[in-house]
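User: Could you go from structure to sequence for me? I need the amino acid at each position, not a summary. Structure tokens:
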């Protein structure tokens, strides 16, 4: 937008400066049109719509995914991290498990970034299934704003396999 405006100003200045010469005016107008219009329209929509994955810059926290005779759970189920940290989910027992944030409860202004930070998703905000012991899945919280991010395991939601990540 700013570039486009500046280019327009430059074009107008050129037009004004060489008021007499028809040939020069045409050239200036064509040049301004060629250089301003494509860059102004092309980069803007992708920048607004598509989020790039942001790698973690801080600590990596571990959460175990467990299913045993005491039930299905994430350990710890409540985890507080800093923006830019990562959380590594480790399959321990009782899989398959996954990590699924509910798009309806994730803070709206961080939904697209969190989704972009998750690899190999099954669907929006939903990790793939971890089947075997010691399989892991790491989510970067870089660019994810402070707030509460509740999640669950899709196969064991009915067994209350849930957790909350609080980003400070
Ligand atoms: Cu599970």
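Assistant: Here is the amino acid at each position, in order:
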């Amino acid at each position: 937008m700013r570039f486009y405006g500046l280019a327009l100003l430059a074009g107008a200045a050129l037009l004004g400066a060489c008021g007499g010469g028809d040939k020069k005016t045409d050239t200036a107008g064509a040049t301004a049109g060629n250089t301003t219009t494509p860059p102004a329209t092309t980069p803007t929509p992708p920048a607004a719509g598509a989020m790039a994955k942001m790698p973690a810059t801080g600590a990596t926290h571990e959460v175990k995914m467990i299913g045993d005779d005491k039930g299905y759970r994430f350990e710890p189920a409540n985890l507080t991290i800093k923006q830019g940290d990562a959380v590594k989910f480790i399959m321990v027992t009782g899989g398959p498990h996954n990590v699924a944030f509910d798009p309806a409860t994730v803070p709206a202004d961080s939904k697209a970034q969190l989704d972009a930070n998750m690899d190999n998703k099954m669907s929006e905000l939903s990790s793939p299934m971890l089947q075997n012991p010691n399989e892991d899945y790491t989510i970067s919280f870089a660019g994810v704003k402070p707030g509460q991010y509740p999640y669950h395991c899709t196969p064991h939601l009915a067994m209350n396999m849930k957790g909350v990540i609080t980003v400070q």
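One structural detail worth keeping in mind: Residues 67, 72, 97, 153, 155-156, 161 surround copper (II) ion (CB under 6 Å).
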